[in-house]
């Protein structure tokens, strides 16, 4: 009797999580994928017209704003990657000097506790042309200073990138710091004994050793970029015009403003495909690392 | 588990020990220090600007000196932000949003932590044959974009009859965070020594008894980490609150965004900045009070799995 109970209890305890996963994730994803092949508008329809089952995708990729959104996704990913680069440099410097490590870490990390809405709002205030940094610079002798990035379609994305870097810098620094600290300290003294220069030590030894950390950072950054919605709403609300739309913004807009479930679903499915494309390397790398750890243990 | 309890001792000790060694200060050290200080300023200045702006009368703001301290300090903007901030036609301040956020936060914390700690425990310590497959599914679920499940979740929540209430928002938060939290709990629990659990199973054998009497009392560290992760996630969320909230149940971030960003009226910058600060204060307090757990929380949320 006892044995049977111990068989049943864990499975019973797992039931809520399984139900949540099946309904909230697996079922919901399947539903959205299905809807992307239908002609659903305000209300879901379940009939798939075999002649035009791809019509939502055709409309999506014929849509100029969708291409803008995809392009912005790429710009945002490349631009925010600076956060990883700077995060590594900062971590390396903090790790080297150790002086004031706690203070620098506290200062660099606090933006992460601030919501992206507040972040966007704060930076919007800094970018304000008549009262913000531009006005300050012009008032101090730089008559041609231009910091009104958010007002022009060509530069608005750079404003969003700057705010994203500000928000994420500390996070990548913390990940890099954790990676650096896991490196065996003997390497440092060995390198010093061999007379290896600091620059070469980092480029030829430390960075290759930390490739898994770099990969993790890159993947997390990309996943975050695919989800970029709050920061866009807070800084530009998609504007000027549609110049700062992202796929995430596009999908929400297709549902809430255009009330078009089929169209929104198609955009969401493309988002999912992008996420999976980013995600597969992480799965592979995790498996690879686990195998290496097994090998090291055995 | 030992790794976790060892970590805290390091940073403080390093900071104290090094000056005492009295080594010669090198030029490169000064350069590094200057660089770090500059980056820190870049990160710190926006907060400084927002704080000083929120204490300035509107007349001083129009001078365009955003880096200056207020000449006449005033807490008027804070009072206005709390009591009179307008969203659309209603001018009830951001306080309603604050209370909504609190009402959303607590049920979502209880729900998500209860379900994911038990699930993590069952998957880590009990022999469930499909555990690995399920963990892999959870791993994927933890990273899918919200948009792909948003519309069906709206339909499910509406059919439960709670759409537009704080319960709906709390429930969706619990659902969304379940995969990641489960992975975090599972990774923590699987390091509990097997002998301990085997002995406990021999002793009582009860799934719930072992959870309550052995596993839960060992979970202090991980609970704090998860709490911090959840508090910041839920409090800072915008999209879920926007999608599932009703007119009077929107969380603080949504009210802030609606009143400051999407409103078309004349902007009252000092009140807006005070409202932004009021929204940011709770997670910032958590951050400054529990800094080292915070770092652990976000990094364990990020890389484990």
From TrEMBL, chain A:
It is found in: Cell membrane. The chain crosses the membrane at residues 12-34, 73-94, 106-126, 156-180, 201-226, 263-288. PROSITE patterns: ABC_TM1. It holds the Pfam family BPD_transp_1. One of its GO terms (cellular component) is plasma membrane. It is a multi-pass membrane protein. Its main location: membrane. This is Glucose/mannose transport system permease protein.
TrEMBL record, chain B:
PROSITE patterns: ABC_TM1 (PS50928). It is found in: Cell membrane. InterPro entries: MetI-like, MetI-like_sf. Its main location: membrane. The keyword Transferase does not apply. It comes from the Bacteria. Keywords: Membrane, Transmembrane, Transmembrane helix, Transport. Residues 98-290 form the ABC transmembrane type-1 domain. Belongs to the binding-protein-dependent transport system permease family. This is Glucose/mannose transport system permease protein.
